[in-house]
Amino acid sequence: MQSSIIIALFCFFYIANATFLPRAFDCPEAQNGDVDSAFSFPGDCSKYYECTDGLAVEKTCGPGLYFNEEKPGCDTAENSTCDVPGGKEA
């Protein structure tokens, strides 16, 4: 009886996780042997994803800094390539 309840709870949480929680960032396929790269975080200029060997890690820039895809990394607002509508938002 207890094992049935545990299995039912596991299935419930698995389905809820797959249905309601946002998916993690999927790193693009490596091109030209470059496996390490960074990508902007949708909707927040102060965050970005760092991809290493296909795994994404969410990173946050320091106070007053924003993601710059050209660098890539954190930079001042003037140098940031962030594309959030309405400007740089932390």
TrEMBL record:
Q: Which residues form the Chitin-binding type-2 domain?
A: 24-84
Q: Which SMART domains match?
A: ChtBD2
Q: Which Pfam families match?
A: CBM_14
Keyword Repeat tagged:
yes
Signal peptide positions (record): 1-18
What keywords are annotated for this sequence in UniProt? Chitin-binding, Disulfide bond, Glycoprotein, Repeat, Signal
Q: Which InterPro entries match?
A: Chitin-bd_dom, Chitin-bd_dom_sf, Chitin_bind-dev_reg
Name recorded for this polypeptide: Chitin-binding type-2 domain-containing protein
Naturally occurring in which organism (per UniProt): Mucor flavus
Q: What is the lineage of its organism?
A: Eukaryota, Fungi, Fungi incertae sedis, Mucoromycota, Mucoromycotina
